[in-house]
Amino acid sequence: MDPTLEKLSARVREVVDLRHAASILSWDERVYMPPGGSAARGQALAAIQRLAHERFTSADVGEWLEYAKAHADGSDAHSEATAILAVTARDYDKATRVPASFVSELAVATSAAQHAWRQARAEADFSLFAPHLDTVFRLKRQYVAFFPSTDHPYDALLDDYEPGMKTSEVQAIFAGIRPRQVALIRAIAERPQVDDRLLRLPYSEPALWDFGVEVATAFGFDWTRGRQDTSPHPFTESSGAGDVRITTRFDPQEPFSTLWATMHEAGHALYEQGSDRRWTRTALEGGTSLAVHESQSRLWENLVGRSRPFWEHFFPALQRRFPAELGGATLDEFYRSINRVQPSLIRVEADEATYNLHVMLRVEMEIAMLGGEVAVNDLPELWNEQMREYLGIVPENAAQGILQDVHWADGLVGYFATYTLGNLISVQLWDAFQSVEPSRDDLMRHGDFSPLLSWLRREIHQHGRRYMPQDLVRRVTGSGIDPEPYLQYLERKYREIYGL
Ligand code: ZN
What we know:
Layout: H1 3-31, H2 38-57, H3 59-71, H4 80-97, H5 100-123, H6 126-144, H7 154-161, H8 167-189, H9 205-219, E1 226-230, E2 236-238, E3 244-248, H10 257-273, H11 290-304, H12 308-321, H13 323-326, H14 331-338, H15 355-370, H16 379-391, H17 417-436, H18 440-445, H19 450-459, H20 469-477, H21 483-498
Parallel strand pairs: 1-3
Antiparallel strand pairs: 2-3
Helix pairs in contact: 1-2, 1-3, 3-4, 5-6, 8-21, 9-10, 10-11, 11-17, 12-14, 15-16, 15-17, 17-21
The chain binds zinc ion.
């Protein structure tokens, strides 16, 4: 290998190694660390992240990248080396545009904002958080100015989570979803409601955990390259395809949330475990975007895990684990219970039919805030109006409304849309899989998920970050991100459950 290119690869390997170390520290912080460790852990993590940033953004990396571009021969535009170089250059460009002084200013501001947010939420008092939110958005406007100008300032924020995605595309997609999803929820509300009391019996936590492990194993989760623990907010943390960790939680009020979290995080983990070994310690390791990542978690959680064929296979096993609670229940009762639709105030508890509306409301607010079209103090009222229009319910206080998510306090603006985009992609993939595997539902009825996992490995997982997200979706499904399959899926599913 050319010695200059070897220097570039070696530096990237070092940076990826530092990120892997940070990832384990961060996992431990959220899973096992005693509270007393938080100050030292924060400092250790900041030191490693700063080191990784400095090593990656140093001037020599820029020179090596220039050299690599100048010496690339155009004949192998689609080679692996070209793909690695292109993604490394894109990451470098992004990382070097934002001055270190701004990064520290944002870190200080979001640390104060998180503190204020916790207090504001505990007291359900938005005014405690409002000045911090104002600062976060002021800094986000500054952040946008570090990048070349785009059609919409929000484009630069979206691009951090969903590379290549434009605000106008998101708005067009949302405009297509909104009326049909609102109409669906209203139609469901007029039908007799589903009784889901059987999900709220006193289920044993260890037995539900064991069942979740059985399901994740059936999905293909590789326990020699991953593990599961508990944490207050379920998440997936990866330090390369050989070590991918998921968490779940147990809530006695919603015992089955432990199972949905395991399925969801296992979906993220399968993506990470499936990244080709060729990309190990390169810029291509991991998943290509948050939306594509979310398409994997949603596919396993909802399209597989909340489907009737899946439970035709697994319900008898669940009944055997819970004879007292479910011995007398029918498959149909259980299936309807886990798919009950009920407009709720809290996004993370929302069902499939209402979830996207929670997301749209936030994205619309972010876009308006960034453009200076609404003032911070008007947000709670706007929130309530939108909730009434979309879901027909209004929070009693700001803690159940605008203060419920930590994202803005964390400085994460431009993130929410990826949840909905992931839902849409999940159904596009689900349909594409059925077109190559017409017996898809029968495979699920037999608990055989290996054809599905093999297909996802081949079409999505193995590529890591090689393709831009929309290009990847187009390669697999023949179209860009499209809401139509998702809307049809929802309408079909709930027509049957609610007799619409
Ligand atoms: Zn997720």
